[in-house]
UniProtKB/TrEMBL annotation, chain A:
Keywords: Cell shape, Coiled coil, Membrane, Transmembrane, Transmembrane helix. Residues 113-260 form the Rod shape-determining protein MreC beta-barrel core domain. GO terms for cellular component: plasma membrane. Belongs to the MreC family. The chain crosses the membrane at residues 12-29. Involved in formation and maintenance of cell shape. This is Cell shape-determining protein MreC. It comes from the Bacteria.
UniProtKB/TrEMBL annotation, chain B:
It comes from the Bacteria. GO terms for biological process: regulation of cell shape. The chain crosses the membrane at residues 12-44, 51-68, 74-93, 114-136, 142-164. This is Rod shape-determining protein MreD. It comes from Lutibacter maritimus. Keywords: Cell membrane, Cell shape, Membrane, Transmembrane, Transmembrane helix. The keyword Cell inner membrane does not apply. NCBIfam families: shape_MreD.
């Protein structure tokens, strides 16, 4: 017993060092696993609050570009409305389905990005909406130009978003003009370019083809724009690397929308049931 | 003595805020963000009792982690350099015994202070980027980031120490 006490006294700094180092490594391992929610995240009262304060000053400098974006999206939406209106007026296409008429599939919530990282290997964003506004983990985050990421940790007032610029991010995407699917990942080199893997060999790709979300996961709606194909590297008749230039400038993101799939539970339950049988 | 506590507390909070609010958004050449907050570890008074520096360095690193959403990466690296600070200093100065209380980084020769800062900064950055990439395949990216970010951290640290500390 005396030896033990002597040992601890002699090496007490080393033991303290090892103890704290183990704790730090525990947080690091937790940080690298996708499925665990993390203790260390910026969606807390102090860091979230501080980022929010600083951002409320910063956003004055970006009002012009933000307005521009809103205007562009407005024009886009007005065009779509016009198309629907015209289609409705051509009475041939008008089918009012009373059973599905009132079912809304996706619900959008507006949020502001108060902290944005894009140069690290694993990037996260912090937004100023949390559980108080109905935000929960695993919701998609988009803006008018394309996808941003998936909600990871939430606190009452803030949430962190796993950016598409993260080694844990893997999003189902497809070509706009055909139904071939692939997965969107990021190799950590340039924040303007992301990569597609698992693309079938028979799919015909061209430089400049548009990539959109595939809608196979229950997180993102189908058809949200991602980017255009920039370079294609072919090795052994397989697509070795496909670089996609993002529509979004990930270094300048202000307002975002959080997509809530109202039928997610139903879809997941059904899939679970089929898997168990 | 109280003055030392106050000084270090202000430096702790000041460097933390400087790091998370300004330096993490510098993005020099697109990807370099100097990690200046480790200057706090370099300037902390050297004492026989090492538990305070170990705890506080861990806390400083963890605070940066909270803001950066990076798990325990900065906590692990900062704690490590806090632990090896004294052995490195002994090696650089080439003696094993010196006056702990009167030690000041400005009182030793510039070249020795610079090599002390350089060694600790590079070790810290190497740990940070290794844990960030977490893969042996990315060793070139790790070294590249360590060296480039390290250079800017060292330049800023040296300038900061010269400008904001008194020569004794």
């Amino acid at each position: 017993m005396q030896h033990l006490i002597y040992f601890i006294r002699k090496y007490r700094y080393f033991l303290l060092f090892i103890l704290l180092e183990i704790l730090a490594f525990y947080f690091t391992i937790q940080h690298h696993s996708y499925h665990q929610s993390k203790f260390v995240n910026s969606a807390n009262f102090i860091s979230g609050g501080l980022y929010n304060k600083v951002n409320s000053i910063n956003e004055y400098f970006h009002l012009k570009t933000e307005n521009q974006l809103l205007n562009e999206e407005n024009a886009h939406l007005k065009n779509q409305l016009e198309i629907i209106q015209t289609a409705k007026n051509d009475s041939i296409y008008t089918v009012i389905d009373t059973t599905t008429h009132n079912i809304q599939k996706y619900e959008y919530t507006v949020a502001k990005v108060i902290n944005n990282n894009f140069v690290k290997r694993n990037n996260y964003l912090t937004i100023n909406k949390g559980t108080n506004n109905g935000i929960s983990p695993e919701l998609g985050v988009v803006n008018s130009k394309g996808i941003i990421g998936v909600v990871k940790n939430v606190s009452p007032k803030f949430a962190t978003v796993l950016s598409i610029l993260n080694s844990n991010s893997k999003i189902n995407v497809r070509l706009k003009n055909s139904n071939h699917f692939g997965s969107l990942i990021w190799n950590g080199n340039d924040y303007n370019f992301v990569q597609i893997i698992d693309f079938p060999r028979q799919a015909k790709l061209k430089k400049g083809d548009t990539i959109i979300t595939g809608g196979k996961s229950a997180i993102f709606p189908e058809g949200i724009s991602v980017g255009t194909i920039h370079t294609i590297v072919i090795k052994n008749h397989q697509y070795h690397q496909i670089n996609v230039k993002l529509f979004n400038d990930m270094s300048a993101i202000g307002q975002v929308q959080i997509v809530k799939n109202l039928q997610k539970e139903e879809q997941l339950n059904l899939e679970e049931k089929s898997n168990n049988e | 003595m109280n003055n030392v506590v106050l000084n270090n507390s202000i430096r702790f909070i000041g460097l933390l805020l400087l790091q998370v609010l300004i330096l993490n958004h510098v993005n020099l050449f697109g990807f370099i963000n100097p990690l200046l907050y480790i200057v706090w570890v370099l300037l902390f008074p050297i004492k026989k009792n090492k538990s305070a520096i170990l705890f506080l360095s861990f806390l400083l690193g963890l605070s940066v982690d909270f803001f950066l959403d990076s798990g325990g990466i900065h906590a692990a690296a900062t704690l490590f350099i806090a632990y090896i600070r004294l052995p490195i200093l002994n090696t650089v100065l080439g003696k094993s015994d010196f006056d702990y209380l009167l030690f000041n980084i400005r009182s030793i020769a510039f070249i020795k202070a610079l090599s002390f800062i350089t060694i600790l900064t590079l070790i810290h950055h190497f740990i940070v980027f290794s844990l960030e990439y977490f893969s042996f395949n990315a060793i070139t990216s790790i070294m590249y980031n360590t060296i480039l970010t390290g250079i800017f951290t060292i330049i800023l640290s040296v300038l900061g120490i010269i400008l904001f500390t008194k020569k004794k």
